[in-house]
Write a structure and sequence with these properties.
It is built from 16 helices and 12 strands. It has 412 residues and is of the alpha+beta class. Helix 3 runs antiparallel to helix 10, helix 9 packs antiparallel against helix 10 and helix 12 packs antiparallel against helix 14.
Length: 412
């Protein structure tokens, strides 16, 4: 097949015409900078040139005037499909055009056509805010937990609650409150204060826990902690959730029920706190890759700043730990509370997945000889300030001698 056979009949919006010549700019646009007393100019590239199509076209034949009117009407539409003889089908917008009639060329109408690329305007797309959904699910779970506690306490006869037995039964729950729910200690400075409130004023206890959600928001600042700090704190919360799973066995039906109700409330509040912590981790923006690496001596005087990005391996391990710990409260939840717990678990999973999508993975490196940590991290990332992170992640005692195998460093 020859090149003539491969040409396509030219047309615009279905109106055919003949093409004598077609041209369009290619390559890069830019600005040439020339300086006095310098022989070498500098060309500043400004991106690709726009695909503008200039066609020299004509219509010929006994019906040329009728075909001309059809083409003029098509051009007045402003945009449409151009069948380019050499480039194929294109979506274009009509630019400045000229039409020429001459008596000498009877039965012939000449056109100079200019077409610009027509990129369809993208419609706005809605994105789900996993962070907002997680906070909403956490608030719903806390409301469900408070309601479950109040409902349980209404079935208990306060006169039958043994003070000493209740105190012994909730010792571990109170230790968790001291370590992880500090705002409540201002109200219940001693375990006896909490025991008395549970027996005499259970609605006040529920109100204290419900008002805790506003304090949880202010416990830490992500800008200060970063991804690693948040993950470390959530890991501590996971252990606290396991510790607060069940009260110590005691005597008395009502005392046991009151201890279990309070323990469930503490455990649910810790889960809400975990959700708040996880929601504080944003999806990282795309990092700008450094073209050249600064020398180590320069970084020692002026340390480089790098964008904090999540590590996918850490987030996957955290998600697995949360999935496992959620089985404890779900196993003893009523249908309504189980639904709130399940919604929060799904929201946690979705947000961790969204955060991980913007992160980097750990890669394992092996070396032929033992190298100092500073050399390894500079060779891998060009950022000597990450040496402390490499040492801590790999549990290295002496920074001058790294193991030969399985050294975990951040990938690209």
């Amino acid at each position: 097949m020859s090149w003539r056979d491969r040409l396509m009949p030219a047309s615009f919006r279905g109106v055919q015409f003949w093409v004598d010549q077609a041209k369009n700019p290619v390559g890069q646009k830019g600005q040439l900078h020339e300086y006095p007393q310098r022989d070498l100019p500098y060309f500043e590239g400004l991106g690709l040139q726009a695909k503008i199509h200039d066609l020299t076209a004509f219509i010929v034949g006994p019906d040329c005037l009728e075909q001309r009117d059809k083409l003029l009407k098509a051009l007045e539409q402003g945009s449409g499909e151009l069948v380019h003889p050499w480039l194929g089908r294109l979506q274009v917008k009509v630019g400045e055009c000229d039409m020429t009639h001459t008596r000498q060329d009877g039965g012939l109408v000449t056109f100079t056509l200019k077409f610009y690329p027509d990129q369809p305007v993208p419609f706005p797309t809605a994105a789900v805010s996993t962070q907002t959904l997680l906070l909403v699910s956490a608030d719903s779970l806390l409301g469900s937990a408070v309601k479950r506690f109040e409902d349980a306490m209404t079935l208990i006869k306060a006169a039958r609650i043994g003070i000493a037995n209740l105190r012994n039964s909730i010792k571990e729950a109170y230790e968790v409150i001291e370590q992880h729910l500090q705002p409540l200690i201002d109200e219940y400075q001693q375990i006896s204060d909490l025991v008395k409130a549970v027996k005499e004023l259970p609605k006040d206890v529920a109100a204290q826990f419900k008002g805790l959600i506003g304090d949880i928001n202010e416990l830490k600042d992500f800008a200060r902690e970063g991804y690693r700090g948040v993950i470390a704190n959530v890991s501590q919360q996971v252990e606290a959730i396991k510790k607060a799973d069940a009260p110590k066995l005691t005597t008395g039906k009502d005392t046991t029920a009151a201890a279990q109700a309070l323990t469930n409330l503490v455990q649910d509040t810790l889960i809400v706190q975990v959700a708040q912590w996880v929601a504080s981790m944003p999806v990282a923006s795309q990092a700008v890759k450094r073209v050249t690496n600064l020398p180590v001596g320069h970084q020692a005087v002026r340390p480089t700043t790098h964008q904090d990005v999540p590590v996918v391996d850490d987030l996957e391990a955290l998600r697995a730990a949360l999935e496992e710990v959620f089985k404890l409260p779900e196993a003893k939840a009523d249908p309504a509370h189980y639904l709130a717990m399940s919604n929060l678990r799904q929201a946690l999973r979705a947000h961790l997945k969204a955060v991980a999508s913007s992160g980097v993975r750990l890669v394992s490196k092996s070396f032929k000889q033992s190298l100092p940590g500073l050399v390894v991290i500079y060779q891998q990332s060009g950022d000597a300030t990450r040496i402390a992170e490499v040492l801590q992640r790999n549990g290295i005692i002496h920074p001058g001698f790294l193991p030969l195998d399985d050294v975990k460093v951040l990938g690209e």
